[in-house]
Records
---
Amino acid sequence: MAISYKKLWKLLIDKDMKKKDLEAVSGVSHYTINKLNRGENVNVDIIARICTALGCEPNDIMEIIPGIQAGEQK
């Protein structure tokens, strides 16, 4: 099972934000943004900080992709 953050990147586009803007408003590090970009696991606290900053819920920024291992691309 893998996690996809494509919804997060689409939400940023819809809000006319860049990843750097997300770092600033959420307080999430550049390293963590890179982990999200690679589809790697992050702590639930990070997801909560991003959701709080963007005014959304976790299912608005991520989805579980069954049958694919973490780190694999679909």
---
Amino acid sequence: MYAAFVDYFRTHRIAVSRWLAAAGLLALAFAESAWENTPVEGITFFAGVVLVGLATVGRLWCSVYISGYKDAALITVGPYSITRNPLYLFSGLGFVGLALATETLLLAMVIAALLALLTPPVVAQEERYLAERFGDAYAAYAARTPRFWPRMRQYATPVTWVVNPRILQRRLLGSLWFVWGVGFLEVIEDLHKLHVLPTLFRLY
């Protein structure tokens, strides 16, 4: 069952991620941080905004390099020269950052645990596909490039890069989801302060 779920998540990860994010934001409409008016409130929100900013810029960066090339070529430059899975890395930062922007710690830990559980097997499946498709070229790339954590000293970027503008435009919009999420959280907090939304439970 776990393998089937991982396979489903791999093929529908964008839709699943958006539905989970929407469900989480809806639940947060009736929740309030237990850290309100404490130093933890400011620290968690600031950390969340920093991570969301990194995630947004990182995903935009990745989009430039894969727009029009996905599955058609092995990309080994730009963000893909320092890590084999920059989109997963930046998306993970974004989800944890969005959780921290709720000014809670528990939600961020739950999100981080889910990412640690789901991401590696999904990435492993994709790597098997890439190994079959690109053979020795991918094997050499995997040998010198870490799976997740960037190795900055081997960063390489081309002088020019050709992209498909239509695909890039769609990816640019998709990269802004985390920023919109932070804005939505702020709207929810203001509605709580105005007593428009009830607080049914608190999150630590």
---
Amino acid sequence: MSNRLYSLLLSRPVLTFLIAGLSFALFGLVSFNLVYLLKANLMLFLDYGTMVIGDGALQQLGELVCYGYLSLAFYLLFKTCEHALVERIGHPPQAPRHFQD
């Protein structure tokens, strides 16, 4: 799967650029304030103990962890697109060589 995706990204630079921009924007959107929310959630657990589980703090902690992994996935997609674009710029496809007689 990853080799097919990477070869697709190498063969279509405009699509790769658009996907890179979209994944970078989604990475920023998902990870915005994530650290502060996670810190606040953990402080809630430390201050009130297991009493906050019934109020939904455990579910919120799980959601924050999932948002962290989703943010990581968007970042990895962005870095893959970036690598494909840099490789394409550094090593442009060569035209087939014709042998001279």
---
Amino acid sequence: MNKSNGKQALRNSALAARERLAEAAGPRASLTIARRLLGDFVFMKGAIIAGYAAVQSEADPFPIMATLAKQGHALCLPQTRGKDLIFRAWKPGDPLVVGRMNVPEPNDKARERRPDLLLVPLLAFDKAGYRLGYGAGYYDRYLHEARAKRTIYAIGIAYAGQEVDDVPHDETDELLDAVVTENGVTRFRRDAS
């Protein structure tokens, strides 16, 4: 089986597993994840934080983002443009439009932002810090380009049961800096290459 087929097979099983995990964890898991993240990380004053609008069974970062907004942080959400990912200003209560792949996103009038930290969705993650996404490569491309120019961090938001032994990866896959689950925080070492 080639790497591409292996990733797709893992995506299929990881999606089914995440749906079971989300149902078992219930809506309170997102609040627990928020408490763990907010209790473990220090957010630099003025840091711009990017989240995402959870779809399907993704762990929901909105409780985290609501608290960060109250603390005065500027927030943003991703918007897809062709093969690129950009981030536009958003705060709790702002309307969202349905974007590509039915993912809610800010409209074109929202100001473009350059986030310092990304909260990212995932299907699976491993002990090395690799994440399995949906296969379009938006976050990997964005992180690769942004990390070449500035310091930017990526934190996966997940259920603990989404950890797998190994996520197939190649040179285009970007490492996470940490993953936060309902059970705790795992930090990864990202060596400069």
